[in-house]
Amino acid sequence: MNAPHDHHWAEHVHDMSAHARDTEQERLLELAFIQGFRAASDKRAFLELAGVPLEIREGGAVYSLMQVALNQSYEVGSAGPGFGGRDLVYHPLPGAMVRETHELRFIYLSIGGRAEFSLKRIRQR
Q1: CA 77 to each of CA 22, 26, 74, 81, 99: distance values in angstroms, whole numbers, following the listed order
Q2: Domain ranges in the chain?
Q3: Phi and psi, residue 70, nearest 5°
Q4: What is the pLDDT of residue 14?
């Protein structure tokens, strides 16, 4: 049972929904893929080992993998509307609260266009 308990100043319950656990697991898998892909001396072999297809059939078309896009960013501030006005209120985050985020996309091309897939979608194929 997940009973509330005290951690010095805040009472809370240790309980993650199945969706939250799955989302966290996908985030960790994506981070592990990014770290491994960056470190791999043979990127093509890493893709094969990870089960990323070089070609995908989607809607009757064949898409070929052209790019593995890795985007890294840092959230250094937050903003929101001010009270009673149309101004944006900006708050820089303290250093300990700056968050690093990653985005991973697999970009495929066919004669008819472009398709982007997440690691989760690739793994579901």
Answers
A1: 27, 25, 9, 14, 9
A2: 16-124
A3: -115, 115
A4: 53
